[in-house]
Amino acid sequence: MLDWLPAALPWLRAFHVIAVISWMAGLLYLPRLFVYHCSAPAGSDTSETFKVMEDKLSRLIMLPAMTVSVGLGFLMLASPGYLAHAGLWIWLKLILVGVLLTLHALMVRWRNDFARDANTHSERFFRIMNEGPTLLMIGIVILVIVKPF
User: Fold this and answer.
1) Model pTM greater than 0.85?
2) Residue 87: which residues within 8 A CB-CB, separation 6 or more?
3) Taking the mean position of all CA atoms in its chain, how far away is CA 118?
4) Structural domain for 53, as ranges
5) Stretch 132-142: mean pLDDT, rounded?
6) Is 141 helix (H, G, I), strand (E, B) or coil?
7) Distance between CA atoms of 36 and 5, rounded to whole angstroms?
């Protein structure tokens, strides 16, 4: 049933990387918007503008890119023999991707808090959270390219 997957693997990888780049762009930019949004008074024009930017980035870029990334990732994993030839690196990568998905979900929660003018976090908090996707990306790329395990 999945006999077509091995031949399609290069295309799946290419579109997976494109989707991951788009998803990462959002994961890197959204917390930066939160940093700036923290300094905008609730109800101000600036705050309302940030709400629109955050919503569109989250719903129109990050969510579709994440969905395509995960979907293509599962298709690649389902390719006959893919997991049999992968080492420990793939399992570590999947754990880091799980953390990245959790961070994405947290960002959606924080965006919803801002949308309700109910943010309780500081600029400093979001500056620190802005580093999470970068560190996870570094780990994932090293695991995928170097395959140290």
Assistant:
1) yes
2) 147, 149
3) 24
4) 5-146
5) 97
6) helix
7) 44
Helix axes 88-115, 131-146, angle to 10 degrees: 160
Cα-based angle 125, 37, 101 (whole degrees, multiple of 5): 55
Residue of 89, 72, 66 lying closest to 8 (CA atoms): 72
CA distance 111 to 121: 11
Name the residue among 34, 25, 24, 28 with its Cα closest to residue 55: 34
pLDDT of 110-134, one tens digit each?
999 999 999 999 999 999 999 999 9
Q: Is the C-alpha dihedral spanning 64, 66, 69, 74 positive or negative?
A: negative
Q: How many domains does the chain have?
A: 1
Cα–Cα distance, 133 to 149 (Å, whole number)? 22
